[in-house]
Amino acid sequence: MTIDKGCPSRLSGDSGITEKGGKNMTWQELKDMCNGCNRCRLCEGRTNVVFGRGNETADILFVGEGPGRQEDEQGIPFVGQAGQLLELALVSCGYKPEDYYIANVIKCRPPENRTPFEEECNACMPYLRKQFSFIKPKIVVCLGGVAASNLIEKNARITGLRGRWIEKGGTLFFATYHPAALLRDESKKIVMWQDLKKVKDKLDELRSAE
Ligand code: URA
Prior knowledge:
Elements lengths: L2 E3 L21 H9 L17 E2 L5 E5 L4 H6 L6 H12 L7 E5 L13 H18 L3 E5 L1 H7 L6 H4 L3 E4 L2 E6 L2 H6 L3 H21 L2
Parallel strand pairs: 1-6, 3-4, 3-5, 5-7
Antiparallel strand pairs: 2-4, 6-7
The structure holds uracil (URA).
């Protein structure tokens, strides 16, 4: 299977978090900083910051777009309908909870679940970058166009990126549909299932080569 070489990852390098402890900070300090964040106006409408969940040293980092209503209420990513569909797909493809961590490009819910603006994604990126540096995943899976265009290739469409492996700085990047897209278009379900199976197979291959 071919692996394309991508431009440098937006997740590597200095996180850009320059506040106290930026370099030596702990997960808890990062969470605390994120919980108090006011780097963009989305902080004004949030109930909770949705930081992330899962194994903090996982081999796979899934990245979605941003919290919806239920995620905002509970402070946990992918707990709504789309999240339940994702969970079902992951379990049926053989993923174990310890295999992955799930986060979003933006940590606060946009009004009416609109697509986040570029400046909101940029303002939030240092948190994701720092999460990436703590987790050190082998694979980053972008769920949907917002994650893919922020992390793999700016202005690219999900239809062009999905299903391909792109290597950036030693990490493999992969994009598939956002689970919410499956709720609108059932025909995407089989494709996403196949994509997630492909990622699981790659994970098993990388682990057995260790
Ligand atoms: N959609 C996302 O992109 N992220 C969530 O956490 C929930 C829904």
